[in-house]
Amino acid sequence: MKKQKKNKSNLKVKIISGAWKGRNISFLEKRDLRPTKNQIRETLFNWLQNDVKNSVCIDLFAGSGALGFEAASRGAKQVFMVDNDIDIINSLNSQKIKFEASNVDLIHANAEEYIEGHHDEVDIIFLDPPFSKNIINNIFPKLNKLKKLSNKCKIYIELPYCKNPENNIDIPPNWELIKSDKLGDVAYLLYQYKNTVV
Questions:
Q1: Residue 44: which of 165, 166, 195, 180 has the closest Cα?
Q2: What is the pLDDT of residues 147-174, one digit of tens each?
Q3: Which of 40, 69, 99, 134 has its C-alpha lying 20 to 30 A from 33's C-alpha?
Q4: Residue 146 binned pLDDT confidence (cut-offs 50, 70, 90)
Q5: How far is CA 105 from CA 14, 66, 92, 169, in A?
């Protein structure tokens, strides 16, 4: 009985703005599941205020759904939320039903495999992988090969804070760092993709 209770969606984070402003997202208590802090989300979506409406987004390590549902709430045309944990996907689906979020698509998949098979145009990508797994550098070259990244596609990255965190990740040369900040032990960076094919 105790074990069953622990697996319930009893943790919550609030949507900051948009159609679902003030409503709670319930999420599971899981190792490495770490919702983006409210202050960071507010800063990030201020950075993206002219980009989110009518955009197509990928939340590649969806977890709590805080980034993906925030984007959907603020008017994104379509948000693909990807996670390799079926319990998380089921929890996100319950939340999608509560919000009647027709602009959210949930995908149970490994992030690298999903990227290799994605064929829709993308305007914004959220990358907030588990900090305990050093997997983010494997994602960048696969993302950069996506044929349908829109020119000036924004790529958001969340990392454990260290001095000059951008020097610890293998960013493709055609990604330009346009914003960065830190809060506590978290660094967060926003890049802009530039299509170099003429």
A1: 180
A2: 788 888 999 999 888 777 777 788 999 9
A3: 99
A4: confident
A5: 20, 14, 10, 29
Sign of the four-CA dihedral 137, 141, 147, 153:
positive
Residue 192 identity (one-letter amino acid): Q
Sign of the Cα pseudo-torsion (186, 75, 28, 130, in order): negative
Domains and CATH numbers, the chain: 2-193 (3.40.50.150)
The structure tokens 């804070």 sit at 161
Mapped to the 3 state alphabet, what secondary structure does 47-92 carry?
HCCCCCCCCEEEECCCCCCHHHHHHHHCCCCEEEEEECCHHHHHHH
Instruction: Give the DSSP per-residue string, 95-158.
Output: HHHHHT-TTEEEEES-HHHHHHH--S-EEEEEE---TTS--HHHHHHHHHT-TTEEEEEEEEEE
3-7-62 Cα angle (round to 5)? 155
pTM of the full structure: 0.89
Please answer whether residues 188 and 44 qualify as being in contact, where contact means their C-beta atoms are separated by less than 8 angstroms. Answer: yes
Cβ pair 111, 125 in contact under 8 A: no
